[in-house]
Design goal:
The protein is α+β, with helices and mostly antiparallel strands. The chain has one domain (15-144): Aminopeptidase (3-Layer(aba) Sandwich). It has 4 helices and 5 strands; from the N terminus they run E-H-H-E-E-E-H-E-H. A 5-stranded mixed sheet has the order 1-2-3-4-5, sandwiched between helices.
């Protein structure tokens, strides 16, 4: 994975959050954060879904939580990784990157993405991928500052039958 320059993180003493791995005990807070952005997961599917994500050997998940409240989540990032023949190595895919609106522009996104990219590098990933919505907004500039580029590929999705 190529090294790129990254924007500086905020000073450590000014942070009111901590970064840590996602835990099964984060279920309620994680699904509440997802629901706040329109990703509603049925209550009877939540325990199994979080168990899969937390325990899967090819998924890395990190959260930013309130420094004073371990279970109050501000943000999440999940990244899957797998071997890929055409790259001759591993590829990582950022599957979810979510920051509560009131917590944006505080350095949380920088810290979460830096954590995921460091893990991808440690895993020897040759590439990190992600999908962004088409309308250009501040997210595009943020990811471009980390070396992400739009390769003009569209994602095709088959709905569950």
């Amino acid at each position: 994975m190529a090294q790129t320059s990254q924007p500086p993180a905020p000073a450590a003493g000014t942070k009111d959050y901590r970064i840590r791995p996602l835990k099964r005990g984060d279920r309620d807070a994680a699904f509440k954060l997802l629901a706040s952005e329109g990703w509603v997961v049925a209550a009877n599917d939540q325990e199994l879904a979080i168990s899969w994500v937390v325990q899967h050997p090819e998924i890395e998940s990190f959260v930013a939580h309130d420094v004073a409240a371990y279970s109050r989540l501000y943000a999440m990032i999940t990244m899957s990784h797998r071997p890929q023949l055409r790259l001759g190595g591993r590829v990582a895919s950022i599957d979810l990157f979510l920051i509560a609106p009131e917590q944006r522009h505080k350095g949380i996104g920088h810290d979460l993405l830096s954590q995921a990219l460091a893990r991808a590098q440690a895993l020897g990933c040759k590439r990190v991928e992600m999908m962004l919505p088409e309308p250009r907004d501040e997210r595009h500039a943020f990811f471009e500052s980390y070396g992400f580029v739009n390769n003009a590929n569209d994602l095709w999705v088959r709905a569950r039958t």
